[in-house]
Design goal:
41% of the residues lie in helices and 27% in strands. The chain has 15 helices and 20 strands.
């Protein structure tokens, strides 16, 4: 590897403004190497370089010359497999230049002024068109600097670039005072640049975190190392008006004239957090009623059972199908919303009400799990639903069939308790509508039998116990065979040949329960 080049060998020497561009490029594109080379009369030399001791100068010079020769961007994702410059020096060791991206600096007439390039000792999998455009924007900034021959980074140009990036850009000096504050930072935080520059960076940090930040800054100043440099983190910031909001921030640090300086790229992620919260809400709540769904109810039930006693009501609506059939699904949906409102209004704030699907609801009551108290509450709900609903000018009378499960009496597991409570209203319906049934041993026996039968259903496929028989279909007028009907039979090893009526109900119940549990 060639010896690192010194700044005295770069063109006409380096200047702080050009160094700021290469440092900025390294931070923005997260690369260790950034170079700005210029065409000065007949000479093409490096004007500024960042991370120069990490790459071979001659290879970088050759790649920059290639960009000048074509006046087109050059992207080399892995130099070992993409040799754009035949005869360029080979690399030795682990610090060879693997990734390179360079764009020409062109003035308004298309004349080349130099090259801005970035590089890394690690290859990249991609460098898409959008990212390349950002490199071109920064090259335009460098072009403006060259043409205007200024000795400081143009505020107008860098602000324009910051807006293209969609980021607030802030820098602070070794004393923790703000030294740069772009228009995007003004928009996000509410401070103008004149208000912010010179103020401590703590003005954007909530008061409860400021002591921690000051201690961290002292540690960085002492050690010269920031553990957060180059990393993207999410935290809470505060605006001028005192409101807090979430941000995503990427930090960079470097050694300035007076010590460690820090720069931050900041993105307001309020909208993203709100979308995440909405998705989280949808995953655990019923879209129609706003109540917890089966998934959300199960998680809350698990938490309550882990702490102690719990009562679960599984509720089926009586006569709801008649409403749907008579008035249509739109009215039926409105009725379900009314049921949700009435249930919530009848219960204490600690109760959790859920819609499990269709016309099935559930209620979770944390507490001592006394059967007498649970039965009294269920009766109060039943009595309240004797009052009809009035929707679209129609009076609609529905009732509740309520099953009750108690933890830990009936089950110590959330899924088991909900399953047992689900069986109770089915038993209640057998004795009529608007009934209440507490889970009891006879129901447990039925549950055991159903599970055994379900296990046998699962094994039937493995054992090859399913049989298809074919019943011919004949046209009576001329006795012509017009088709066959396929009939499924289960050749049970102990119970003999079973017809669909013997197993379809159990099979369908199992499938419905499985779909509900999976959230489909």
């Amino acid at each position: 590897m060639a010896a690192p080049a010194s700044k005295e060998k770069f063109g006409a020497g380096s200047e702080p403004a050009y160094d700021a561009i290469t440092k900025f490029a390294s931070n923005v594109f997260d690369v260790p190497i950034s170079i700005l080379s210029l065409v000065l009369e007949d000479e093409h030399g490096f004007k500024s370089g960042h991370g120069l001791d990490m790459y071979n100068v001659e290879r970088a010079r050759a790649l920059c010359a290639h960009v000048l020769g074509t006046l087109e961007p050059l992207i080399v994702l892995d130099a070992r497999f993409d040799q754009h410059v035949p005869g360029a020096p080979a690399f030795d060791g682990e610090e060879e230049l693997r990734f390179f991206a360079g764009v020409p600096l062109l003035n308004s007439s298309g004349h080349p002024l130099g090259v801005l390039c970035i590089g890394d000792t690690r290859p990249r999998e991609s460098f898409d068109a959008n990212t390349c455009e950002k490199l071109k924007d920064l090259a335009a900034l460098a072009t403006a600097l060259v043409e205007e021959s200024r000795t400081s980074l143009p505020d107008r140009a860098i602000s324009s670039f910051a807006k293209v990036m969609g980021l607030a850009l802030i820098t602070s000096n070794a004393a923790g005072k703000i030294t740069y504050w772009n228009p995007a930072a003004e928009d996000i935080f509410g401070y103008s640049a004149s208000e912010a520059i010179g103020k401590p960076i703590e003005i954007i940090i909530p008061a409860r975190f400021r002591d921690h930040h000051v201690a961290g800054m002292k540690r960085v100043s002492t050690t010269g190392v920031s553990n957060l440099s180059g990393k993207t983190i999410e935290l809470v910031a505060v605006r001028k008006n005192g409101s807090e909001f979430p941000v995503e921030m990427r930090l960079a640090s470097w050694l300035g004239p007076d010590g460690i300086e820090i720069g931050a790229q900041i993105h307001d992620i309020t909208d993203r957090r709100e979308r995440e919260l909405r998705l989280e809400h949808l995953a655990h709540h019923d879209a129609l009623t706003g109540l917890a769904n089966r998934n959300g109810f199960s998680k809350k039930l698990e938490a309550v059972i882990a702490r102690g006693h719990a009562t679960v009501f599984a509720i089926d609506l009586d006569r709801f199908k008649e409403v749907n059939d008579t008035f249509g699904h739109a009215v039926g949906d409105t009725l379900l919303q009314g049921v949700a409102v009435r249930l919530v209004g009848l219960l204490e704030p600690s109760a959790i009400v859920a819609r499990l699907g269709g016309d099935e609801f559930a209620i979770l009551l944390p507490g001592n799990g006394a059967q007498s108290s649970a039965t009294a509450t269920a009766q109060r709900l039943n009595d309240a639903f004797k009052e009809p609903f009035v929707l679209s000018g129609h009076r609609m009378q529905i009732g509740l069939s309520i099953g009750i499960g108690l933890a830990p009496l009936h089950a110590e597991d959330a899924e088991e308790l909900l399953l047992r409570a689900d069986l109770a209203p089915l038993e209640a319906k057998k004795t009529g509508q608007d009934n209440i049934r507490v889970f009891d041993p006879p129901i447990a026996n039925q549950l055991t039998a159903r599970r055994a039968f379900k296990d046998e259903l699962r094994l039937a496929t493995e054992r090859g116990e399913w049989e298809l028989t074919y019943q011919p279909q004949v046209r009576l007028s001329d006795q012509e065979l017009i088709g066959v009907e396929a009939l499924l039979r289960w050749k049970h090893p102990e119970r003999g040949l079973l017809f669909p009526a013997d197993f379809l109900n159990t099979l369908e119940t199992h499938l419905v329960a499985h779909e509900a549990a999976s959230g489909s």
